[in-house]
Amino acid sequence: MADRMRANRNESINLTTGNVIAASTYLTMAPTAAAAQTNCTTVTGCSPAQMAQNDLFQWNAALTTALPGGAGTIAVATGVFTITINWDDNRDGVINAYDPNFTVSFQP
User: Which residue range(s) make up the domain with 21?
Assistant: First the structure.
């Protein structure tokens, strides 16, 4: 996901100022709410926001397929993005402190 956000920088940061775009689709849309964007199979005909939604949709599909109860979130603080992935490793039906998670931070 970090690589997808770096590739779609127009939807992550303002290229002129270097500031994070607070209204970015990556930050405002839950991956579970994202829908496939058919125009995004190629670069042409797809806006940065549509590409971000497609990225979130594909990421969520991969997480839920590969991990039991897999879920991902994206947050930002002081210009640094943090991606967190949680899953129900012990398969007790809830994701809690007994389950592992993975977190990575990066700048686009």
Answer: 2-106
Whole-number Å distance between alpha carbons of 103 and 85: 6
Domain count, the chain: 1
Q: How far apart are CA 46 and CA 14, in angstroms?
A: 18
Quote the pTM value. Answer: 0.90
Query: What's the token pair of residue 36?
Result: 């496939």
Q: Which residues of 32-57 are buried (b: 16+ CB within 10 A; e: fewer)?
A: eebeebeebeeeeebebbbbbbbbbb
For 12, counting Cβ atoms within 10 Å of its Cβ (0-12 exposed, 13-18 middle, 19+ buried), the class is: buried
For position 43, what pLDDT does the model report?
Answer: 64
Of the spans 12-16, 53-57, 91-95, which averages the highest pLDDT? 53-57
